[in-house]
Automatic annotation (TrEMBL), chain A:
It is found in: Cell membrane. Keywords: Cell membrane, Membrane, Transmembrane, Transmembrane helix. InterPro entries: Cation_antiport_E (IPR002758). The keyword Transferase does not apply. The chain crosses the membrane at residues 7-26, 32-52, 64-88. The lineage of its organism: Bacteria, Pseudomonadati, Pseudomonadota, Gammaproteobacteria, Alteromonadales. PANTHER family: NA(+)/H(+) ANTIPORTER SUBUNIT E1, NA(+)_H(+) ANTIPORTER SUBUNIT E1. It comes from the Bacteria. This is Monovalent cation/H+ antiporter subunit E. It holds the Pfam family MNHE. It is a multi-pass membrane protein. It comes from Thalassotalea profundi. Belongs to the CPA3 antiporters (TC 2.A.63) subunit E family.
UniProtKB/TrEMBL annotation, chain B:
Signal peptide: none annotated. InterPro entries: PhaG_MnhG_YufB (IPR005133). It comes from the Bacteria. This is Monovalent cation/H+ antiporter subunit G. Keywords: Membrane, Transmembrane, Transmembrane helix. The chain crosses the membrane at residues 6-25, 37-56, 68-86. The keyword Membrane applies.
Length: 178, 110
């Protein structure tokens, strides 16, 4: 896990890229004036706001991150169809349940991303993280954390935990190297 | 041709949003009701916005890409709002239906 960038003037490369793209998209143009303005905004806003932020882990493998994003987008589409079928089918046959998934991730930010992807993918909504508070003591082994999820139609608990860990958590671990 | 694409996208989007709302009415308890709106509507909104994008890109000269932003913001906010709602439901100890498994996985608030 790395918190600092190599360049002092660019504390959060992803936020800067996003600011740049969002500014161009909002103005719906790629004229020179807007590109210059977007560059100025993308560099100054993170610089000014960086003292207020808590340091977040950086993406170390960007290519893998994009591949993971594509996988999640594909899963969102299949999830929508699956949930639509579940909703239209008989309600009495659904077996909802709460499942606790043990996490290998320890930092809040990768856990947030994992929780959001779990919420957007088939039949699961993430409900809570235990323990809720992040406690990092230097030199100590970080606490084991759990993600509580609500499943619309629970058939095989172990299988579900395995899928979440392999499909969504393992790539995140590699992307952030933590 | 473009009219066909737009109408098909609008129909898909509309039916997904409708299914999400049906889920909101049909499901028996709060936790299950959350599933419809968080998922079925994201794809519905995405295809409605794609339809808008195709429409404005073909009817005007310039390419219209603002709709991508709306979809991204929706994708970002949907899980967060779902998380806020389910967390407050757990905090208020709302009842889930009888056959819910693993209720003892819920821990007390700290």
């Amino acid at each position: 896990m790395r918190l600092e960038t190599r360049f002092k003037w660019l504390p959060t490369p992803i936020t800067s890229t996003l600011l740049f793209l969002v500014w161009l998209l909002l103005n719906n143009s790629v004229s020179t004036g807007h590109i210059v303005l977007a560059l100025i905004l993308a560099i100054t806003i993170p610089l000014i706001t960086s003292p207020f932020r808590t340091k977040q882990p950086l993406i170390i493998k960007p290519v893998l991150a994009i591949r993971h994003l594509m996988l999640v987008l594909y899963d969102i589409i299949t999830a929508n169809v699956q949930v639509a079928i579940l909703i239209l089918g008989p309600t009495k046959k659904l077996t909802p349940g709460f499942v606790k998934v043990p996490l290998d991730l320890t930092h809040s930010m990768p856990i947030t991303i994992l929780a959001s992807t779990v919420s957007l993918t088939p039949g699961t909504v993430s409900a809570e993280v235990y323990p809720w508070r992040e406690c990092f003591v230097e030199g100590q082994k970080p606490q084991q954390r759990y993600l509580l999820i609500h499943v619309l139609n629970l058939t095989d608990e172990q299988e579900l935990i395995k899928t979440i860990k392999q499909r969504y958590e393992a790539p995140l671990k590699e992307i952030f190297q933590c | 041709m473009t009219e066909w694409i737009i109408s098909i996208l609008l129909l898909i989007g509309g039916s997904f949003v409708l299914i999400g709302s049906i889920g909101l009415v049909k499901m028996p308890d709060y936790f299950m009701r959350l599933h419809g709106p968080t998922k079925a509507t994201t794809l519905g909104m995405a295809s409605l916005l794609t339809a808008a994008m195709v429409f404005f890109s073909t009817s005007q000269d310039a390419l219209s890409v603002k709709e991508i932003l709306i979809s991204i913001f929706l994708l970002l906010t949907a899980p967060i709002s779902a998380y806020m709602m389910i967390k407050s439901a757990i905090h208020h100890k709302l009842d889930s239906i009888e056959r819910t498994q693993g209720k003892d996985n819920i821990e007390d608030d700290v």
